[in-house]
Structure of Sodium/calcium exchanger membrane region domain-containing protein:
Amino acid sequence: MFTISILISLLAFFYLLGKAADLVIYNIRIVGEKLGIKIFFLGILLGFFTSLPEFAVGINATINNISAVSVGNLLGGIVVLFSFILGLSVVLNRNIITNEKKLISLLLVFIYFLLPLFLGFNRYLSSVDGVILISLYLILIYYLYWQQKKDRKSTSNLIIHKDKITRSILLVILGLVLVVVISNIVIRFTSVLLTQWAIPPFLVGLILFSLGTNLPEIMVTVRSWRRNIKDLSLSNLIGSGMANIFILGFLSLIKPITIKAATSFYSLIFFMILLFGLVLIFYRSDRRLTRPEGIVLLFIYLTFLISEISWMFFID
């Protein structure tokens, strides 16, 4: 009876999670249209707020002197974003049209993602490294804003109703809060359910890592594809990944981070370079992301998980 109650609760919360994501997506489109800001850029800003769970985990880990947890969570989370979540989106939505004009922006973002790995090659992220990561985040945000401002149509003829804009912005904020809170509830319920079914702790961790702090991004991305606002789903992933690096920089400002020179760290570098290279190739080829390419991304995610677990149990 307890298990059935948990299952019913999970279904109800997933429904509410979808509605909360819809609230964000519907109103952020209104904000973009009224202010003449492209959805792509708004999605990048949205990605920062859907990364608030990572921020909470990172602050808690730093305070408790286990900053290695936050490094793994933040950098590993980027692999989850662009392999599991992007791959799943492409598979579910078949062919996804891409925009070659955004290729340079995507390349710069991926270089930014890799930067902490190279800064941390000396096994240490200092406060200076933190300043570099935060400064480059702000520069990249400004560059992306400048790009969308240059490309957008003239907004001189737009009639802006302040009341409606304010209402839409407040609804976006409300939707974001609900997405983050309900995602956390879903993860807790899922953990209880898996434990009730006597599933091995190893597998529980594997499943929760796939969802974990990335559930808000998963929900916003999937609902964006369904509502045919594809720019929002991709830019939300980009914004969330950028926010992860910003958070890493912020944490190293609070307290310098020592990185364990483990095999898994070098494995992470390899997978991130491989993943970003493939995404760039897929993004440019045929001006679309296809279902076979989505399957490749999901395979990379599975391989990444297996390799990280192997290093953890058999090598490190």
Residues 154-158 have pLDDT under 50 and may be disordered. Strands lie at 96-97, 124-125, 257-258, 288-289. The first helix runs from residue 2 to 35.
